[in-house]
Fold each of these.
Amino acid sequence: MPWIMLVIAGLLEVGWAVGLKYTQGFTRLAPSAATIVAIVLSMGLLGLAARQLPIGTAYAVWVGIGAIGTAIFGMAVFGESASPARIACLGLIVVGIAGLKLFK
C-alpha cells in the first residue's frame, strides 16, 4: 500500500507542477485552488508512504515521478524539446531511482 500511495503522490506532483503554469503566478483562482489541493494531497500521501518506506527512497521516487512526468507532459503538451539528449537524461533519472530501490 505505501508504494501505491507514493505513485499517486508522484502523479499529483506532476499535476501541481503543471498547474503552476496555469495559475499565472497564482492570479487565476480555479487553477490556483486546484494546484494548492494537488500540493497538499501529494505531500500528504508522500508523508503517509514515508512512514513505511525509507525516506531517501520515497523522496527520490516521488521527485522522480514528478520530474519525469512533468518533462514528458511539457514535451507532449507544451511542445518542449524532446531531443535524444533530454530523453537520455530522463532515462538516467529512472536508472537512479531504480538503483535506490535495488540497493537499499
Note: The CA atoms of residues 23 and 30 lie 8 Å apart.
Amino acid sequence: MSQYPVLYAGQRITAGLLSSMLPLEAYKGSDTTRTSTTTTTDDPDLVLTLEGNATYYVEIFIHYAAASTELLKTHWTVPSGATGFRSAWGPTQTVATSDPAGDGRWGIHGFTTDVQYGTRSNANFLTMAKETGNVVTSSSGGTLALKWAQNTAGATGTRVAAGSYMRAKRIL
C-alpha cells in the first residue's frame, strides 16, 4: 500500500516533512450570497492549491440556504488535466420543505457535472450538503475550488454560509 509521504528509517525529520503530512484546509469565515445568476463561479473562500503529480482525497462540507424556487447547484474547479470523481450527499433537488428528512441524493459525478440540491423551503434556514472525491493531478498542479450558483436565477439569493469548509489530504 502506498502512502504519502514515504518515511524511511533514519530519515531526518524536518518541518517540511511534517508539514507535508497535514491536510490542506479552507474555512469559510463569512457568508457569500449570490442572486439572479445560474453561472457557477468559484467560492471566494473554499479554494486550495494542489501540487502536480499527486493524488488527493477531498471533502467539502457546505452549509447553505436557498429559496425553494432557486436552490443550489455545485461543481468543482480542478487543475488542468486532473482526473477523478466526486460524490454528492444532500437533499435532492425536489426537496423544499422545512423538514427535508428522508429525501436525498447520493451519486458519483464528474468534476464539472452540475449537482442540484434542495432546500428547507426558506432562504433563512440553513441545510447542508457534503461532497467528497479523489483528485489525481497531472504534471502541473493548480486550483481546487467549489463552484456554485443558484439552480434557478432569483432575487432572493442563495447563500453558502460561514462554517463551510474544504479539506484535501494528499494520499499519493
Note: The longest helix spans residues 15-20.
